[in-house]
């Protein structure tokens, strides 16, 4: 006798918790063949605002953690992903309609990407910062610091790898993120939120919204408490208007054409959302 299917309705991930959308809206997630897979929450403007509030509240603790600690936290995510590899492979097979080997390669690359970026947390400052030569009895040192709250429009054509490739580098320097997952392939992002909730990542460091990027992105781009916007997955949106909205609140923006190859690990993606702080210190004359 066949069992009755139990359709799932997934929620958002905001502040380390799993709230429903305040609007009560959901949308159907379907497979590559059009079969129903699950219901996902359709985030609203209010949900986006709540996510920004959570990201701002978590910023001080995450940015203030040691680089070594952030690296260990990110590495732990990779460990948990490895433990749930079969689940992610299965989701990608159904969502993208690819073979198990192709899906497995994507998951393996996503895990490797977390490890790669985790390794940079206590190293990138030595590359991006420097001691500056000055004429006088002073030390002059430039160091990279996090930009703040970063809104990310994840790549829309990838279940997992694009999401990881956009989010992980922003976390390295101590930024917190509000990310809009792929509208077509949201299940891997939702499952990743469950990984984050059981990892050492403090609540609010990563906030995941599902739904329509076209609906949510304008509110994030114009939000005065968002410090930067990564439009890597906004190529199909009116991203010029998003840039204009971001400019009105003096945000740093990574446009789609500069981040098109989000799948490639890059130090530039870490430094894209850092600010340079220069410190002067008098040399002892003794």
From TrEMBL:
Keywords, alphabetical: Oxidoreductase
Single GO MF annotation: oxidoreductase activity
User: Which residue numbers delimit the Aldehyde dehydrogenase domain?
Assistant: 22-237
InterPro entries under this entry?
Answer: Ald_DH/histidinol_DH, Ald_DH_N, Aldehyde_DH_dom
Family annotation (Gene3D superfamilies) = Aldehyde Dehydrogenase, Chain A, domain 1 (3.40.605.10)
Query: Which top-level group of life is the source organism from?
Result: Bacteria
SUPFAM superfamilies given in the database record: ALDH-like (SSF53720)
By what name is this protein known? Aldehyde dehydrogenase
Q: Which organism is it from?
A: Leifsonia tongyongensis
């Amino acid at each position: 006798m066949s069992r009755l299917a139990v359709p799932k309705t997934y929620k958002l991930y905001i502040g380390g918790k799993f709230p429903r959308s305040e609007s009560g809206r959901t949308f159907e997630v379907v497979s590559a063949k059009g079969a129903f897979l699950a219901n996902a929450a359709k985030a609203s403007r209010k949900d986006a605002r709540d996510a920004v509030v959570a990201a701002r509240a978590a910023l001080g603790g995450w940015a203030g953690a040691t680089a070594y600690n952030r690296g260990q936290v990110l590495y732990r995510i990779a460990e948990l992903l490895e433990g749930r590899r079969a689940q992610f492979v299965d989701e990608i097979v159904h969502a993208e309609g690819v073979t198990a080997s192709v899906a497995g390669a994507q998951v393996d690359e996503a895990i490797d990407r977390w490890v790669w970026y985790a390794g940079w947390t206590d190293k990138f400052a030595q590359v991006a910062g420097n001691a500056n030569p000055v004429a006088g009895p002073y030390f002059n040192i430039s160091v990279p610091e996090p930009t703040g709250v970063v809104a990310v429009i994840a790549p829309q054509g990838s279940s997992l790898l694009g999401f990881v490739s956009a989010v992980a580098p922003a976390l390295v320097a101590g930024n917190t993120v509000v990310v809009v997952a792929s509208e077509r392939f949201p299940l891997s992002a939702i499952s990743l939120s469950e990984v984050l909730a059981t990892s050492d990542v403090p609540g609010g460091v990563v906030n995941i919204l599902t739904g329509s990027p076209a609906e949510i992105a304008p509110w994030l781009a114009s939000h005065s408490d968002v410090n930067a916007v990564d439009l890597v997955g906004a190529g199909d949106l009116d991203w010029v208007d998003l840039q204009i909205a971001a400019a009105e609140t003096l945000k740093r923006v990574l446009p789609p054409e500069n981040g098109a190859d989000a799948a490639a690990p890059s130090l530039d993606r870490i430094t894209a959302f850092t600010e340079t702080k220069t410190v002067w210190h008098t040399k002892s004359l003794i």
